[in-house]
Amino acid sequence: MAQKLELTWIGKGEQPKLEPRILLEDPELSYHAKERVTENDIFDNRLIFGDNLLALKALEQEFTGKIKCIYIDPPYNTGNAFEHYDDGLEHSIWLNLMKARLEVIRNLISEDGSLWISIDDDEAHYLKVVCDEIFGRKNFVCSIIWQKKFSPSNDAKFISDSHDYILVYAKNKDLWKRNLLPRTTESNSRYKNPDNDPRGPWTSGDLSVKTYSEEYDYPITTPSGRVVYPPKGSCWRIPKSKFEELVKDNRIWFGEKGNNVPRLKRFLSEVQEGIVPKTLWLRDEVGDNQEAKREVKKFNEQDVFATPKPERLIQRILQIATNEGDWVLDSFAGSGTTGAVAHKMGRRWIMIELGEHCHTHIIPRMKRVIDGTDQGGISKAVNWQGGGGFRYYKLAPSLLKKDKFGNWIINPEYNAEMLAEAMCKHEGFTYNPDPHVFWKQGQSTENDFIFTTTQLVTHQMVAGIVEQMKENETLLICCKAYNVNVDEFPQITIKKIPQAILNKCEFGRDDYSLNVNNLPMKEREPEQLELF
User: Fold this and answer.
1) Cα(49)–Cα(333) distance, rounded to whole angstroms?
2) How far is CA 154 from the centre of its chain?
3) Which of 162, 160, 158, 141 has the alpha carbon at shortest distance from 150?
4) What phi and psi, each to the nearest 5 degrees, are found at residue 476?
5) What distance in Å separates the CA atoms of residue 267 and residue 200, rounded to the nearest whole number?
């Protein structure tokens, strides 16, 4: 049996126990168009400000298996000090942080969805092995080459790099279906009509194949009387009887003088409606870094990202991987290109960003998109007129904190509603308060409910609740203290908080970011990285 390849590094097994935070909307920073532009305007997009690993975890309950396409452009770990990111993390730490994020990302992707990761040579090949482990090597789709710049870097120490990679993984390649790319004027221009065929423009294809078959190896006499054979070691791709049918239907081209080796005519009117995507994406087709910088300058001239992605690049990804109405997620939102493009293309989007450029770049950009005043990027190509909106969220603080004696207590910043929603997440319930029944704050099934309170739960209170319950209903009560003989109420389960959740996750930690200044450095060991 073949041995499984697995990348190992210092600290690989030390995965964080993430707290499932709740998200708090700030209506002052949410934004929507003043009027509907079309009936298909989308308003439930989400911009989340906060640590992207905690934010991904916060989305898990609602969005597991629902995101059609996730695109991420993580810090590349190049050793260069970028203004917006500390992009020089020690290699093992970078791999640990990426692995933790990829594991949550995989949960969020739909069974027919895909992940697209921008990366460069420094980590691309290590990252692929990590993705193989998490997604399964069989679900690797391809590695795309994107020409990110045209001119060489004269200050390059060795060889000037001109491209980045985009690693593409399907959640389940058996279910994932890529879309065709729209036909372009350039691709259609290859079709001509030199013989005035009434079926319209056509192009011709080779009639021979290298897979030899004696039945398909026969002489052909051209209209000029010349006898031709397939190339040596090859044969024709169709039998003689089929060839004769195609000649009668004027689908074989012998050249203007009727003397050439025959070729098969393919009509523009009969080809598939789009073009099969290729793995080489040139800057003329999808833009480059310079184009992206020009796009960013239109909404923030003073503070331009070092390596933004052009809107045409993200458009190409979403054309292949999504359809209108699908959910798209970017957990390293940067300047907000993914959300801007997804919005213009009629996709639902979620962006996560921790840096202050969430407010200095993304919000101003998305406001212009929604107002229709952003006519850069792909706007004219898709006839963007504005519309829709987004909700702005921030991560709630940690549910538990230590008091002055070092004991874990419920965070005083949590009100009753926040506490109820948080306990729903911790216990696997969907927060959905019943407006008429106070103890039905959330449910895990049609008949299983949860009730959270900071009051002392008494025997009399539970008895009153049980009187209201239907025969097949069950209830979990989460409280700080109770005085109840639980054996008398088999349909009731009671848990004390914070004790019930103390060991479930890591409380009080707000930063899992890719900022090296906030991370402890492992002591180096003799063996750093090995491939088994």
Assistant:
1) 10
2) 35
3) 162
4) -105, 125
5) 7
What is the DSSP secondary structure assignment for residue 520, as one 8-state letter? P
Six token digits for residue 443: 């449910």
**Domain ranges in the chain?**
44-182+275-395, 185-270, 400-496
Give the whole-angstrom CA distance, residue 236 versus residue 316: 37
What does the alpha-carbon distance between residue 132 and residue 105 come to, in Å, rounded to a whole number?
A: 14
Q: Is the dihedral angle over the CA atoms 64, 69, 75, 78 positive or is it negative? A: positive
pLDDT tens per residue across span 123-158: 899 999 999 999 999 999 999 999 999 888 888 888
Please count the other Cβ atoms lying within 10 Å of the Cβ belonging to residue 343.
27
* H/E stretch holding 56: helix 52-63
**Whole-number Å distance between alpha carbons of 482 and 375:** 61
Residue in the block written with tokens 């795309």: 144
CATH superfamily of 44-182+275-395: Vaccinia Virus protein VP39 (3.40.50.150)
Of the candidates 454, 491, 463, the one whose C-alpha atom is nearest the C-alpha of residue 475 is 491
CA-based nearest residue to 167, from 224, 110, 237, 118: 118
Residues facing residue 163 across a β-bridge:
147
DSSP track, 498-518: TTTTTTTS--S-----S-GGG
For residues 506 and 504, what is the distance between their CA atoms, to the nearest angstrom?
Answer: 7
Length of the chain: 532
> How far apart are alpha carbons 109 and 105 in whole angstroms?
6
pLDDT in tens, 292-312: 989 988 887 776 666 789 999
| Cα distance between residue 144 and residue 181, in whole Å | 15
418: DSSP letter: H
Q: In Å, what is the CA distance from 468 to each residue of 30, 435, 443, 450, 471? A: 39, 15, 16, 14, 10
Predicted TM-score (pTM) of the model is: 0.85
| Cα gap 343→324, rounded to integer Å | 10
Reply yes or no on whether the pLDDT at 503 is more than 80.
Answer: yes
